Amino acid sequence: MPVIDPGRLRPPSGGGLDADAGAFIAAREAAAGAALSSAVKTLINDYFVGLKTEGIYPLLTYLAIFQSAGNLGAALVPAVGPTPSSTGFISTDLSAKNGLTGRGSVSGASATTFLLTGFNANALNQNSNSMYFNGTGFATTGSAFSVIGGVFMGISPNHLLDIIPAGGGLRYFRTYGAASITRSTGFTSSGSLCIDRSAANLATAYQNGVPVGTSTAASAAFPASPIAIFGRRDVNTGVTNYQFLGTLGAAAFGASLTAAQHLAMHDLTQTLRLGMIAAIP
Predict the structure, then answer these.
(1) pLDDT tens digits for 164-197?
(2) What is the 3-state secondary structure (H, E, C) of the chain?
(3) Which residue, 45, 53, 138, 269, is the most exposed by fewest CB within 10 angstroms?
């Protein structure tokens, strides 16, 4: 289990906001140069409180919330963890209402976009960890994949979580340690997608908080290389890759989540994402 910093479980601040939610809101407003509405502040506060109530918050090593930002600088303000850096993305690739909406800044052969989170993969427990993403799906169809979470060593990612599209609706959840989990029916890229490793020889794919497949491939030691998220690379001229879009955020956990926590993470994050869409013009 990770060591929990007592500062990560601070009591509510004055004015009724959870202290961690209040700190995130203040940092986002400063970066955006504009105040968030009371409705958005309430949604963010309720999300933080819910994560703590379910015992999820202390397990977080990284959490990004892209909705409510409105520009790239504000989007790079993390809810938990170090500030990421951007390769390829620009402010017009994001909207306050919908989060990550595209990558209009680059295209063509070997054009690459990703956010480098600023923390290394070996901060995670090799045999007990989880990578989580929530969004509205992929931007386009094609023959390549979207690396929605990976360890970057040089230009090549070693994957913490890929979703690999293929013909006929077939999808593969692929994770570090060579685990590949096929989701051939009932796949939807809208909502929550997660890989959870609970043991050296057990990785489970989750879709919208529900387990949809497992792999018994052995885990591998994580390198001291940074984790990148929402990567897309056009690897060949004429090949169109997917970009995971509408993204409320991403989370990395230093431990496996329980079944109840997976459902709670999905429910809380969906509530935040849909609430933001309703609250932001």
Answers:
(1) 665 545 567 777 776 778 776 777 778 898 989 9
(2) CCCCCHHHHCCECCCCCEHHHHHHHHHHHHHHCCCCCHHHHHHHHHHHHHHHHCCCHHHEEEEEECCCCCCHHHHCCCCECCCCEEECCCHHHEECCCEECCCCCCCCCCCEEEEEEEEEHHHCECCEEEEEEEECEECCCCCCCEEEEEEEECCEEEEEEEEEECHHHCEEEEECCCEEEEECCCCCCCEEEEEEEEECCEEEEEECCEEEEEECCCCCCCCCCEEEEEEEECCCCCCCCCCEECECEEEEECCCCCHHHHHHHHHHHHHHHHHHHHHCC
(3) 53
Q: What is the pTM of this model?
A: 0.87
